[in-house]
From TrEMBL:
Superkingdom of the organism of origin: Bacteria
Keywords recorded for this protein, A-Z: DNA recombination, DNA replication, Endonuclease, Exonuclease, Hydrolase, Nuclease
Residue ranges annotated for the Nuclease SbcCD subunit D C-terminal domain, each copy included: 265-351
Name this polypeptide is given: Nuclease SbcCD subunit D
Known partners and oligomeric status: Heterodimer of SbcC and SbcD.
Function recorded in the entry: SbcCD cleaves DNA hairpin structures. These structures can inhibit DNA replication and are intermediates in certain DNA recombination reactions. The complex acts as a 3'->5' double strand exonuclease that can open hairpins. It also has a 5' single-strand endonuclease activity.
Pfam families associated with the record: Metallophos, SbcD_C
Gene giving rise to this polypeptide: sbcD
NCBIfam families (UniProt xref): sbcd (TIGR00619)
Family: Belongs to the SbcD family.
Domain called Calcineurin-like phosphoesterase: residue spans: 2-216
Length: 386
């Protein structure tokens, strides 16, 4: 199986279009399927970057589906939190006849795609992104949080699997933030109820869990893995090795996984120093053809820094000011104070600020959390309806 996810078709990188790079990745994917004699392709969500993708992204997706179908290789895809599940699922019944299995309806979590090899049947279950408040009733979850709705979905998987012939191997595709995974700046926050992550143990009992949502390729356990995004979508991914997982599942359900590197359209570089240091340091010569994020540490803002840096680094796309010296009153900048803080923490800090140091009590913190969750749920529902 070739496990991939988080294509984000239609996304740009600091206003630089990535459609050509995404097309190159899909060429690579199709060639890998052909050359490595892949038996099934798994795409674990966030196929598009937004609910209503640009036409060029839709055309690229359509072309990829035709090419995979022409190879006769079954493809199982789920919707992610960036996708509109309803839009992505249009025509899924017809596509199934061509071997393209789109799983976008939470009610179908317990209905697998069934494949066979020399060792017998393999059941592949697609769990689309589960927005807790919207799927709680559908799945019969006890609470509207990520862990509970995913547990409820997995109960359906296990119930179906229990009725299958002995020796049936199982694979689950899911789009979620699993505890222990390393995050990037380019992933949309899915926190609800103050908790976004779910334990890896929720997938106990299946042979392989193909995860999407986090953009770094990573192994949580031998049987629970993120493929990561095929391209870097933020400078926080500058150190990532972009790849897919080529997973062998033997007759006993044992997993052997190999990373297959994705094409790199242009390397990323995060440079820090004064303007003069960045312009003069010979060590930066290797980054002159990279996409560059330059963080200037000058105490005073230099004259025309973007234009001057672009002469050396023509693919400079981000300029950040972060002086090494703090302000005269010793306070940090607004950006420095907010760095790494959640929406909940920022809201609680604001309460302290406007009430002259008196923090929110437990009831007020719960009210803030509820308001933030309602906004996130409403935004998700609005995206799905657009």
């Amino acid at each position: 199986m070739l496990h991939t996810s988080d294509w984000h078709l239609g996304r740009s990188f600091h206003r630089v279009g990535l459609l050509s790079a995404q097309r190159t990745f899909l060429d690579h994917l199709v060639e890998t399927v052909r050359a490595r004699e892949v038996d099934a392709v798994l795409v674990a969500g966030d196929i598009y970057d937004r609910a209503v993708p640009p036409l060029a992204a839709v055309e690229l997706f359509d072309e990829a589906l035709h090419r995979l179908a022409a190879l006769g290789v079954p493809t199982v895809m789920i919707s992610g939190n960036h996708d509109s599940a309803r839009r992505l699922g249009v025509g899924s019944g017809l596509m199934e006849r061509a071997g393209i299995h789109l799983r976008t309806d939470p009610a179908g979590c317990g209905t697998p795609v069934l494949l066979d090899d020399a060792h017998g049947p393999v059941a592949l279950y697609g769990l689309p992104y589960l927005e807790p408040a919207m799927v709680r009733d559908t799945l019969g979850a006890r609470r509207a949080d990520h862990a509970e709705v995913l547990r409820a979905a997995m109960e359906r998987v296990r119930a179906d699997l229990a009725g299958r012939p002995a020796g049936t191997r199982s694979v689950v595709l899911a789009h979620a933030f699993v505890t222990g995974g390393a995050v990037s700046d380019s992933e949309r926050d899915i926190t609800v109820g103050g908790v976004a992550s779910v334990p890896a143990s929720v997938f106990d009992g299946v042979d392989y869990a193909a995860l999407g949502h986090l953009h770094g390729c990573q192994t949580l356990t031998e049987r629970v893995r993120y493929s990561g995004s095929p391209l870097a979508y933020s400078f926080s991914e500058a150190g990532h090795r972009k790849s897919s997982w080529l997973v062998d599942l033997d007759g006993d359900g044992a997993v052997r996984a190999e990373r297959v590197d994705c094409p790199v359209p242009r390397p990323l570089a995060r440079l820090r120093g004064t303007l003069e240091e960045l312009l003069a340091d010979p060590a930066h010569a290797r980054h002159e053809d990279s996409w560059v994020e330059a963080t200037l540490t000058d105490t005073a803002r230099p004259h025309e820094p973007m234009a001057r840096l672009a002469k050396r680094f023509p693919h400079l796309v981000s300029l950040v000011f972060d002086p090494d010296e703090v302000a005269a009153d010793g306070s940090a900048s607004y950006a420095q104070r907010l760095r790494g803080r959640s929406d909940q923490e920022i809201a609680e800090d604001f309460v302290v600020h406007v009430r002259a140091g008196r923090a929110a009590d437990a009831q007020e913190r719960a009210a803030l959390r509820s308001a933030i969750d309602e906004v996130r749920t409403a935004e998700t529902a609005a995206e799905g309806a657009r």
